[in-house]
Amino acid sequence: MLIDTKYNINQTVWFMHDNKPVSKTVYDIEIPIITENSYPKISYGVGDYLPSRTVEMTMLQSQLFISKEELLKSL
User: Fold this and answer.
1) How much is the pTM?
2) Are the C-beta atoms of residues 59 and 46 closer than 8 Å to each other?
């Protein structure tokens, strides 16, 4: 099985939070595999860099965008 993620660690992504476009950095990628034939729901831990805590929230790949413009086009 080959799994390709859309975003990488330390990449900036855009998403909606409290009805506002927000950019954060990807710090964690989680790919749960239930069975060999299941489709994984890739989730990303995103946040601002803090020495003691980096991940502020977890977002699904479908909720993230490469740029603010792409995010706004999706609305």
Assistant:
1) 0.80
2) yes
Average pLDDT over residues 4-9: 92
Phi-psi region of 72 (alpha: psi -120 to 50; beta: other; left: phi over 0): alpha
Q: What is the DSSP letter of 18?
A: T
Asked whether residue 6 is assigned to any structural domain, the reply reads no
| Residue 3 forms part of a structural domain | no
CB burial readout 4-23, b (16+ within 10 A) else e = eeebeeeeebbbeeeeeeee
Most distant CA pair in the chain, distance? 38
- Looking at the domain assignment, is residue 55 inside a domain? yes
Q: What is the C-alpha to C-alpha distance for residues 67 and 60, in angstroms, rounded to an integer? A: 16
Residue range(s) defining the domain that contains residue 59: 12-74
